[in-house]
Specification:
The chain is 31% helix and 31% strand. By secondary structure, it is an alpha+beta fold. The protein folds into two domains: 46 residues; 90 residues, Sandwich (Immunoglobulin-like). The structure holds copper (II) ion.
């Protein structure tokens, strides 16, 4: 009788230990995956772009893809001068290569061999931009 009780206790302890171990290791695995995802996402957020610059008749600005959104999320230009938006084709993929600024009636497309979208803002203000499907959201500030 005693032997059976002891065996029962041992079996219960064994089951609990196994359940606890698998629960713990699963938790660790998930934590590891989360860290990996976060690290990858942070690495992806580090975007290296050429310097923006202005000449007498054009304002050159660069646009890329950062962390789940366009990068930079805000582009500042002056009214009345042509804007040349240079798309980072390496990071802008799929529909994010289409760029719309609805308020300014800009419907542009970054493509291999034609990586710029040009327009001349005439009115001052802040205008939203995004892809043609309305994903990603940035602001063009015209001063
Ligand atoms: Cu899109």
């Amino acid at each position: 009788m005693n032997k059976i009780k002891i065996m029962g206790v041992v079996v219960v302890i064994g089951i609990l230990a196994f359940a606890g171990w698998s629960w713990l290791s699963q938790d660790k695995q998930q934590a590891f995956d989360r860290e990996k995802i976060l690290a990858a996402s942070n690495a992806a957020a580090v975007v290296q772009l050429p310097e923006d610059y202005d000449t007498e008749d054009v304002q050159v600005r660069h646009l890329s893809w950062g962390k789940l959104n366009y990068y930079p999320e805000m582009i500042t230009v002056k009214a009345g001068k042509k804007v040349q938006l240079v798309g980072d084709l390496e990071r802008l993929q799929g529909c994010f290569r289409s760029l719309t600024i609805p308020d300014l009636k800009v419907n542009g497309q970054f493509a291999e061999g034609k990586e710029t979208v040009e327009f001349t803002p005439t009115q001052k203000g802040t205008f939203g931009f995004g892809c043609s499907m309305g994903m990603g959201n940035g602001r063009l500030v015209v001063g």
